[in-house]
Design goal:
By secondary structure, this protein is α+β, with helices and mostly antiparallel strands. The protein contains 8 helices and 6 strands; from the N terminus they run H-H-H-E-E-H-E-E-E-H-H-H-H-E. The chain is globular, with a radius of gyration of 17 Å.
């Protein structure tokens, strides 16, 4: 390790843990993007795959979000894909919801590079249907893509997961709920999700 990198690490260690994670996440995204540009084959995605093919025999959580009382509130599944059909999204959500290891919680979110699908009140439902909210995610994630200098169709899956994690971290630690001025995220207020996860935390094995 060179001296400059060692100095950076020493300065990072002086910051609060949440700031360390935020900075580390951004740096890791940029490194992932650089690797993606150098190795474009890692961004390949089979767009013709069915939801059943994408879904693994044992589903693993991408992100689990808890409230300040350590209660599981939200499960997040992240896919580096754009313009999924609603039928495809519903089929995938059903596979996840019906999997044996799906932890029961109020909200399920499927995140794509250009759209977000949110189901609410799942802890009172025995089956899953159409999403409660369908959100245009372009105005949400585009600033992140621009920040790291990559387009949505070129970012790697792991880098996109880290962008989603950074976005969720901002929501969790935001002081503006329930008064959201950004209309692209008004659904966080309407659904009650923003308030439910405010002051909480998330678990993400690949980052945390």
């Amino acid at each position: 390790m060179n001296k400059l990198l060692q100095q950076v690490i020493e300065e990072l260690e002086k910051l609060p843990e949440e700031e360390q994670k935020a900075i580390a996440s951004r740096l890791l995204v940029e490194l992932q993007v650089k690797n993606t540009k150098d190795n474009p084959q890692i961004t390949t995605f089979e767009r013709d795959q069915s939801a059943s093919q994408v879904f693994q025999s044992r589903w693993e959580v991408d992100l689990s979000v808890y409230n300040r009382d350590n209660q599981l509130i939200l499960i997040v599944e992240v896919k580096r894909r754009s313009k999924p059909s609603l039928d495809w999204v519903i089929e995938l959500s059903q596979k996840i919801f019906e999997s044996q290891n799906f932890p029961r919680c109020p909200y399920l979110m499927l995140v794509f590079t250009d759209s977000i699908y949110l189901w609410s009140n799942l802890n009172h439902q025995k089956q899953i249907a159409e999403p409660s909210y369908i959100i245009d995610a372009t105005p949400i994630f585009q600033p992140y893509f621009e920040q790291v200098g990559v387009t949505a169709n070129k970012i790697s899956g792991q880098s996109f997961e880290m962008i989603v994690a950074s976005w969720l971290r901002e929501i969790i630690h935001s002081s503006i709920f329930p008064n959201v001025s950004d209309q692209s995220q008004q659904w966080l207020v309407d659904s009650g999700l923003g308030k439910a996860i405010a002051g909480g935390y998330f678990q993400y094995e690949d980052i945390a």
